[in-house]
Design brief:
491 residues; alpha/beta; five-stranded parallel β-sheet; 19% strand
């Protein structure tokens, strides 16, 4: 899915390829401070060693599936709530689009997939898969190292079948409300609606939120947009380039999806103008040499006019037909009521200890899959292991005060590093450190050198060969090492 703007991608590739470990402002990631003599967070009876919890998992995408597996492995009773009639979440392509192309109208018909027809992964399968269930080539299917979305969806279906997860899932079920039981704050009420017919309220010892973050679009704020006569669409509702035939199109956002969509639309459009705050004169010169002739790069839009004109901050103006917002998504949990303990502010879900546990409600409420600019499946897997072991009493959290202190320190470090609040869950600069910290909590091995190197080299090659990096692969040595490592299994 979406990655960082290209100038930051270049910095990230350099940092990762050199494998810097110095403790500077770009190297803060995990919130934990060195362990003192810690008073352990008081556990409910359910969380004593070898006790069984009844756990509700919200969502059956990649995060929900691996959470269900890890909870089941720990002996917990698991119920997974899934709105669709299939597993796989956003990876399952849906040709339908929403009634509001921008995805902002609360009354719109919501489509949960953000896949466009041509989408391929931007990471190789060797680093994409779960640690003990490698994303291997299956004969007769998409065998490319960076496959299309259908192959990822099939991999997740295979994963669910392999571990018997379908038995835990209630399909076509909407979760309407999750909140603490007023009569017993150690339990949660989950109100669900099966196929919009039967409303059920049940009590659970714990809730794991795995509902993803590619459903609620974020759009750019553009002066004058209310009176601009052209069309607007968010990339969430982009599927194929045909509707943009012979148009002048502006694409806001220079992430992976922005780059892909710009090049695809350019195959049918008259002109494509990419706009992003990260685009500098150096980037413009480099990309104009490398990209299609009808793609131009610009800084952010300064304003738009009633006559259809769009003016960029570099002084360039163009009359445009359509603006495509490739501007990411907002975290969105409309069903969750925490009495103000967990808040969503400028795309920061918090305060959360290590992006997972709300310190007041831990461990009975947790989140899987919030970090971005990561290899999502391995991160979700280790987060899920940590949650499952914490609920069963095999892993322990710090005291509430220590978790509060860790979160405050993490926020302060982000502020000192100049990261905006909406980058709270961005951990691309320190993914390996975070993954290895999670592994320590679970008693698992750290990520292997080959995994780190393939991940870093992919970013480096994408930055230098943005049009061909998926198919021109030059790091066969590390791939061979990876294939040997994958045969050894995971945690």
């Amino acid at each position: 899915m979406s990655l960082l703007p290209q100038n930051i991608t270049l910095q990230l590739a350099t940092l990762l390829s050199l494998r810097l470990v110095r403790n500077d402002k770009f190297n803060h990631c995990c919130q934990s401070s060195p362990r003192k003599s810690v008073k352990e967070w008081p556990m409910m009876n359910c969380y004593e060693p070898n006790k069984v919890c009844r756990v509700a998992v919200i969502g059956a995408g990649a995060a929900g599936l691996v959470a269900a597996r890890e909870l089941n492995r720990e002996g917990h009773q698991v119920v997974v709530f899934e709105l669709a009639d299939h597993v796989g979440g956003t990876w399952v392509y849906d040709p339908q689009v929403e009634t509001d192309p921008l995805g902002l109208d609360p009354a719109r018909t919501v489509v949960h997939s953000s896949m466009y027809l041509s989408l391929r992964t931007n990471l190789p399968r060797e680093v994409m898969g779960f640690r003990d269930y490698p994303f291997k080539v299956v004969e007769g299917r998409d065998c490319r190292r960076l496959p299309g979305h259908k192959e990822v969806a099939l991999y997740l279906q295979d994963f669910a079948a392999e571990f018997g997860l379908l038995n835990f899932i209630r399909f076509r079920t909407t979760v309407e409300y999750v909140g603490r039981d007023p009569n017993n704050h150690n339990q949660w009420i989950v109100r669900s609606n099966a196929e919009k017919r039967d409303v059920i309220e049940e009590l659970y010892d714990a809730v794991v939120v795995c509902s993803g973050h590619h459903t609620q679009p974020r759009v750019a704020e553009i002066p004058g947009i209310d009176k601009w006569p052209g069309k607007q669409i968010h990339s969430h509702n982009y599927r194929v380039p045909a509707p943009f035939q012979d148009q002048v199109v502006i694409v806001i956002g220079n992430s992976a999806s922005g780059e892909d969509i710009s090049r695809e639309v350019a195959s049918v459009a008259k002109e494509v103008h990419m706009s992003d705050r990260s685009i500098t004169s150096e980037v413009i010169m480099r990309e104009n040499l490398a990209g299609p002739d009808n793609i131009s790069l610009h800084p952010m839009i300064e304003y738009v006019c009633e006559d259809g004109t769009v003016r960029f901050r570099d002084g360039y103006s163009i009359v445009s037909d359509t603006i495509i917002h490739c501007t990411g998504y907002s975290y969105h949990f409309p069903f969750l009521e925490t009495e103000g303990i967990v808040t969503m502010n400028d795309n920061c879900v918090g305060p959360l200890y290590e992006h997972v546990f709300p310190r007041v409600l831990a461990p009975s409420l947790s989140f899987v899959g919030l970090p971005w600019q990561v290899a999502p499946l391995p991160v979700c897997e280790l987060q899920s292991k940590w949650i499952a072991k914490t609920l069963s009493g095999k892993a322990h959290l710090p005291s509430e005060n220590d978790m509060i202190e860790a979160v405050r320190n993490f926020y302060a470090q982000n502020e000192a590093a100049g990261r905006p609040k909406h980058y709270t869950h961005y951990i691309g600069h320190c993914q390996s450190k975070y993954v290895n910290w999670l592994a320590d909590q679970c008693g698992c091995a750290h990520v292997e050198d080959w995994w780190e190197n393939i991940y870093a080299l992919t970013f480096k090659y994408r930055a230098s060969h943005p049009q061909t990096y998926r198919d021109e692969w030059e790091y066969h040595y590390w791939v061979e090492i990876a294939l040997k490592g994958l045969s050894n299994g995971g945690c």
